[in-house]
Design goal:
Blueprint: H1 2-11, H2 16-19, H3 26-36, E1 39-44, H4 52-63, E2 70-75, E3 78-82, H5 86-94, E4 98-100, E5 103-109, E6 123-131, H6 140-147, E7 152-156, E8 168-176, E9 184-189, E10 192-200, E11 249-251, E12 257-259
Antiparallel strand pairs: 1-3, 1-5, 2-3, 4-5, 6-8, 6-10, 7-8, 9-10, 11-12
Domain DUF4283: 34-106
Domain Zinc knuckle CX2CX4HX4C: 175-221
InterPro entries: At4g02000-like, DUF4283, Zn_knuckle_CX2CX4HX4C
């Protein structure tokens, strides 16, 4: 949209005065860049307008940040969030996804961002659990292959040997929230097919008609077309198991190493 408007302006018959450029001093640009290191943009992906005051109060407590956090409106359900220091902002970004009233809060890192038109709310990281895998498939390689079917792989939760035997394999993915969630994939091991269900940790409200978290408009474009058809997406996509991390270890008596039950970072 921003590019279309820019092209439209270039085609307008503007006056000589309007053609004159206003130069932004380098010093002011540097100040803006420094400020951007403490800011992020947030979009509450909801089909109704949320209460700004409730959002600010709730998320300030949930994020447990030091000092005040300011929220300035960028549009409907869109906000510019400024922290006291970059460390707090980066911690909030690293612990995504977040939600408010069960609606996803899609975040965008504003560092070095030049203008509001450069802000996009299309992607968000999620931890995805891959269930019913054979033990032979509970490793980094299989996690990367299956994870790539749903999004961009950031991390596979395995131990130092690259394995992760257990009830499921965890993969951190960057998901396009405008596309349907992947419900699973088939794998073939020794000529035998296995269906591997995908379950998403901290999954917010999704559309049960199209499987997307975010629509182009306020309502699902395919909702009316699917009346009378059983939903292809549902609450079964939400993971309800305790988080498990193979990234950390502790020592018990006798030198035996065991897994810690830690929330993902």
């Amino acid at each position: 949209m921003a590019e279309e408007l820019s092209n439209l302006y270039e085609e307008l018959c503007i006056t000589e005065e309007e053609k004159q450029e206003v130069l932004i001093p380098t010093e002011e640009a540097l100040i803006s860049i420094e400020k951007s290191k403490k800011c992020l943009a947030a979009h509450v992906v909801a089909d109704k307008e949320v209460n700004r005051g409730a959002l600010r109060t709730t998320m300030s407590k949930v994020w447990k940040v030091e000092g005040q956090v300011s929220f300035k409106e960028l549009g409907c359900n869109k906000f510019l969030v400024e922290f006291q220091n970059p460390l707090e902002k980066n911690r909030v970004l690293s612990e995504r996804p977040w939600s408010f009233d069960r609606y996803l809060i899609c975040l965008f890192n504003c560092e070095d961002c030049l203008a509001p038109r450069d802000i996009f709310f299309n992607e968000e990281p999620f931890w995805v659990q891959l269930h019913d895998l054979p033990f032979a498939g509970m490793n980094r390689t299989m996690g990367e292959r299956l994870g790539a079917a749903a999004g961009n792989v950031v991390l596979v939760d395995v131990d130092s040997s690259g394995m992760a035997w257990g009830s499921f394999l965890r993969v951190k993915l960057i998901l396009d929230i405008s596309k349907p969630l992947t419900s699973g994939r088939f794998i073939n091991l020794g000529g035998k097919r296995y269906w591997i269900p995908f379950k998403y940790e901290r999954l917010p409200l999704i559309c049960f008609h199209c499987g997307a978290i975010k629509h182009a408009g306020l309502s699902c474009p395919s909702g009316n077309q699917r009346e009378g058809v059983a939903p292809q997406y549902g609450s079964w996509l939400r993971a309800n198991s305790q988080h498990r991390s193979f990234q950390h270890f502790s020592k018990k008596r006798g030198g035996i190493r065991t897994l810690k039950q830690l929330a993902p970072k």
